[in-house]
Design a protein that fits this description.
Low-confidence stretches: 79-86, 157-187
Shape: globular
Helix content: 40-55%
Radius of gyration: 22 Å
């Protein structure tokens, strides 16, 4: 029985669907995008509700665009003398934290950071630089005379603040072999009016997420989590689904972040739900499964945060090529306790290179761990499943 059959039921059996997707979702027929929407708790299990549910969600997303991008943009674009947003109470130099202008400048700082990150999303693939078939009409309507996010970035004179949230080196995220910088940031092809590139859509999703979640806002690396979801939805063979890739990605990303966000919140690092605890879990599992290797890493003082921080927060999205990341995510999203399975995957990755690690010195081993040598994700997932079955 394939995942296609599991989707033919009017009421989808989540347990069956999870079991089928765990071993990888077939590429044909755009099933993956649909399965992910169910596995990420976006689509209800009752198919009869889909149409009305999706209509409502997409309307909600349009509302977000109007309130968070279009309206602030209109106010800033009308640079005439009678500016309704420049009043005695609220003007650009107003220090009041409640000031709309103050919010606008703060938003720009976040936007500049997002912009820098999304422009270099998967630089070895042309996809994110290409124009989308379904540009957002709400934003690109020629009648609109407001500042789009892209124009806002181009016009802002603010210097992006260095984001001081890049714990454990997430700024230096790319591994040497994967950072083929084929698109130097100043050489982007400028698309004609009325078009927008896929990276601009990702930028909007992240900006709206940051506005709606001020407690976490935007942290470097989130672009690496939106990227594969958006790519999967925006390449769906079914054009009716593909057309709404932006809204659907936003909600799926929000759901995924609600499970993963604690990894991004610095103040929770050392709590039971924070990233430090998860990084240490990789080593405690390794100690249980391969004591010799565990002792070797301890002896060399190779701490889990030197490499597992990136593995865990970014769900391995920087360790493998995009098609392989997507395959790993089929399994992670299908596992009921997906972040526990991620720890098993990290442990499997260590055990699979144990022979090299046991003979390497600190420098050699750090290089192996920061630019992981095995590219066959099937081997890694099989090993992780084996560790799970033997626990």
């Amino acid at each position: 029985m394939s995942s296609l059959l599991a989707l033919s039921e009017e009421n989808i059996n989540l347990k069956t669907l999870r079991e089928l997707c765990f071993n990888g979702i077939p590429f044909e027929g755009g099933i993956r995008a649909l399965c992910w929407k169910i596995l990420l708790n976006y689509l209800p299990l009752d198919q009869t509700l889909w149409e009305s549910f999706l209509k409502k969600q997409r309307e909600v997303y349009s509302q977000f665009l109007k309130e968070m991008i279009i309206q602030p943009g209109i106010a800033k674009a009308n640079l005439g003398l009678s500016r309704e947003d420049v009043t005695m109470e609220d003007h650009p130099l107003n220090p009041n934290p409640e000031s709309r202008w103050n919010t606008y400048f703060k938003d720009n700082e976040i936007l500049l950071q997002i912009d820098k990150d999304v422009r270099r999303l998967y630089p070895d693939m042309a996809f994110f630089q290409r124009p989308t078939e379904y540009p957002c009409q709400l934003i690109l309507d020629p009648q609109n005379d407001y500042e789009t996010l892209r124009r806002r970035v181009e016009q802002t004179t603010l210097k992006a603040q260095t984001v001081n949230r890049n714990r454990s080196g997430v700024t230096n995220v790319s591994s040497p072999g994967k950072a083929l910088n084929l698109y130097p940031s100043n050489e982007y092809e400028v698309l004609p009016n009325g078009s927008e590139a896929h990276w601009e859509v990702v930028e909007r999703i992240l900006f709206i997420y940051a506005k709606l979640n001020p407690g976490i806002a935007y942290v470097q690396g989130m672009n690496e989590i939106v990227g594969p979801i958006y790519y999967t939805f925006a390449t769906d063979p079914n054009s009716q689904w593909k057309e709404h890739a932006e809204a659907d990605t936003f909600f799926c990303f929000t759901n995924l972040m609600s499970e993963n966000r604690d990894n991004f919140i610095k103040s929770l690092d050392d709590s039971q739900c924070g990233i430090t605890y998860k990084m240490e879990s990789v080593y405690s599992m390794l100690k249980d499964k391969d004591l010799e290797l565990y002792l070797k890493l301890q002896e060399q003082n190779i701490k889990p945060q030197y490499f597992t921080f990136r593995w865990l927060t970014l769900l391995l999205s920087q360790e493998f090529l995009l098609p392989d990341v997507i395959r790993i995510w089929d399994t992670l999203f299908s596992d009921e306790d997906r972040f526990h399975f991620l720890i098993l995957v990290c442990c499997a990755m260590l055990i699979l290179i144990r022979d090299n690690l046991l003979v390497g010195d600190f420098t050699v081993n750090m290089r192996l761990l920061q630019d992981y040598p095995i590219s066959d994700v099937h081997t890694i997932l099989t090993k992780a499943k084996e560790l799970q079955d033997n626990s």
